[in-house]
Amino acid sequence: MTTTITICDTCKRDDWDSTTGATDGERLATLIEAAADMTEGVMTRRHSCLMGCSNACNVTLQAQGKMSYTLGRFDATEEAAQGIVDYATKHAATETGVVPYREWPVPIKGHFVTRHPPLAD
Predict the structure, then answer these.
(1) Which Pfam families does the UniProt record give (predicted)?
(2) How does 22-34 read in b/e, with b if 16+ C-beta sit within 10 Å?
(3) Residue 13 lies in domain
(4) Which residues, listed in sequence order, are joined to residue 6 by a DSSP beta bridge?
(5) Contact 12, 49 (CB under 8 A)
(6) What is the pTM of this model?
(7) Residue among 80, 46, 77 at smallest CA distance from 60
(8) In terms of DSSP H, where are the helices of the chain?
């Protein structure tokens, strides 16, 4: 089953530099999209404002019938993007969306903000 990474493309960290022409969220989205390109079981999409401004940069991981997660406090780095995609790949491979802690990629540890149970059918 496919796991979708939704990336907030309006996120701006407190130290955001407006002269770059892109928000921190847009920069992170570009990196995640590149890391996820051709990754089986993972899809990406951008969304304007996930309402987690105090935790910027934010992403969500969702799949039908599985636990969903919001992660935040990311810098727009290749390491963060790859960690998010690696976790999404593991999420996609599970039946419930729960990935054992020992399997979490290091770049996502400490970045979980919320988790949500799947909606009832």
Answers:
(1) DUF1636 (PF07845)
(2) ebbbbbbbbbbbe
(3) 3-116
(4) 45, 60
(5) no
(6) 0.94
(7) 46
(8) 24-36, 78-93
- Count of helix runs (H) and strand runs (E) in the chain: 2, 5
CATH number for 50: 3.40.30.10
Q: Residue 38 and residue 106: Cα distance in Å, rounded?
A: 22
Take residue 87 and report the two structure tokens written for it: 């976790």
In a domain, 121, yes or no: no
Q: Which residue has the tokens 């051709």?
A: 38
pLDDT in tens, 37-85: 999 999 999 999 999 988 889 999 999 999 999 999 999 999 999 999 9
Instruction: Return left, alpha or beta for 64; rule: phi > 0 is left, psi -120 to 50 is alpha, else beta.
Output: beta
Number of domains comprising the chain: 1
**Which amino acid makes up residue 83?**
G
